[in-house]
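Quick review question:
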């Protein structure tokens, strides 16, 4: 994902920067407390596939999915670009790679750290076009491509040939890791997986003196191929492990009508499960085409209030405008926000945006730093006061809610739905 200023590299800048790099290479030859809830009143149908509350989670039958607050990770797969390649890029465009200078632990380790929301960038790869990384040759590095990158399917990385290091190279591999951990820890709070369908263009013109170096070109996404994301999710996840738009909509006329009536599943119905959301507002209509209110779809979409498919909303900055996140969750939507300030990406520690995000009603706070990045001396991190690892939503949860009602470490492996 590339959303905030330091994380965002506009396509035109990416094209110009990469062209400059290639030209240079050619010429050189080388709170736990809660307020009274103000959500819409409960009503209507109960989502399908529910579970009854069990000993240890006595409030699972009343607390709902939209009454949680959890830490998530941004670009959850991301590893640092090889240093030699970064150095080569920096000699041409100083500062270009600063927004890529972070690394997260493998996804299974993030789960043990309490991360309950992941963001995964997926690229269409029908012909193994990402099986090699041409610029590695310019940096004098071997291009040892793992076997899984040489098979068709959705691949996971940030920017082809430039920022491609990933702890799980395929979408199915990322999902398998999450699913296996979930099966072994059935008492966990619901996990959100954001999927960004990536197709950022970069130049494919070869170097005049080195025609073998040609950068890969992404395959554009459209309504004809977006279903491949659903297909790969269903190939890994069993239907009873997923929270889908159909379940939340129930008998309401639209998905939005259901969430405005607070028809989210209870924690008893959602515990041990995953929900998926497409994090591309520009592809929302294409994904929903032929699927009114996302009927039959696996993923929720990032939609504005008033749209029939609106249920999940990505509000990148909880501080801008003030109070918007709280207003959205009070109405019934679930919200993800990005708490990291732009300058954290280069090692500074401004915390105002983070602190506002934590106090907001955002359900998931998606950070590059669920733990400090001590390898580069970054002490900044995002944690929730009193979390176990999640906590009661400070805006939507009832005053009687306790963090252990959301997730209790003692029940992670012993919980069994009745």
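Suggested answer, residue by residue:
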């Amino acid at each position: 994902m590339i959303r905030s200023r330091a994380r965002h590299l506009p396509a035109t800048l990416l094209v110009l920067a990469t062209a400059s790099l290639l030209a240079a290479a050619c010429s050189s030859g080388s709170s736990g407390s809660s307020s009274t809830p103000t959500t819409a009143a409960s009503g209507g149908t109960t989502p399908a596939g529910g579970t009854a509350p069990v000993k240890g989670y006595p409030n699972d039958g009343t607390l709902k999915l939209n009454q949680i607050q959890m830490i998530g990770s941004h670009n959850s797969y991301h590893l640092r670009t090889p240093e030699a390649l970064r150095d080569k890029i920096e000699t041409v465009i100083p500062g270009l790679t600063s927004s890529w200078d972070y690394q997260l632990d493998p996804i299974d380790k993030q789960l043990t750290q309490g991360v309950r929301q992941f963001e995964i960038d997926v690229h269409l790869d029908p012909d193994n076009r990402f099986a090699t990384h041409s610029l590695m040759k310019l940096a004098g590095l071997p291009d040892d491509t793992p076997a899984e990158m040489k098979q068709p399917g959705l691949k996971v990385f940030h920017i082809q040939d430039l920022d491609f290091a990933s702890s799980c190279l395929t979408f199915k591999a990322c999902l398998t890791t999450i699913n296996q951990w979930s099966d072994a820890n059935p008492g966990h709070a619901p996990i959100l997986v954001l999927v960004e369908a990536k197709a950022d263009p970069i130049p494919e013109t070869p170097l005049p003196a080195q025609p073998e170096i040609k950068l890969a070109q992404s395959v554009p996404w459209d309504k004809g191929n977006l279903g491949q994301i659903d297909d790969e999710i269903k190939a890994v996840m069993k239907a009873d492990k997923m929270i889908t738009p159909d379940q939340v909509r129930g008998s309401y006329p639209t998905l939005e009508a259901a969430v405005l009536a607070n028809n989210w599943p209870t924690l008893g119905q959602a515990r041990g499960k995953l929900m998926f959301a497409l994090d591309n507002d520009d592809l929302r209509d294409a994904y929903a085409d032929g699927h009114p209110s996302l009927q039959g779809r696996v993923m929720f979409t990032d939609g504005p209030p008033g749209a029939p498919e609106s249920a999940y909303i990505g509000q990148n900055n909880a501080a801008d405008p003030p109070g918007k996140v709280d207003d959205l969750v009070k109405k019934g939507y679930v919200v993800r926000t990005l708490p990291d300030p732009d300058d954290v990406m280069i090692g500074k520690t401004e915390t105002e945006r983070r602190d506002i995000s934590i106090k907001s009603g955002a359900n998931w706070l998606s950070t590059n730093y669920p733990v400090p990045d001590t390898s580069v001396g970054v002490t900044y991190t995002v944690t929730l006061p009193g979390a176990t690892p999640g906590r009661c939503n400070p805006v939507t949860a009832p005053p009687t809610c306790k963090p252990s009602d959301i997730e209790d470490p003692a029940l992670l492996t012993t919980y069994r739905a009745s």
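Why it works: Residues 1-13, 25-53 have pLDDT under 50 and may be disordered. The CA atoms of residues 15 and 370 lie 32 Å apart.
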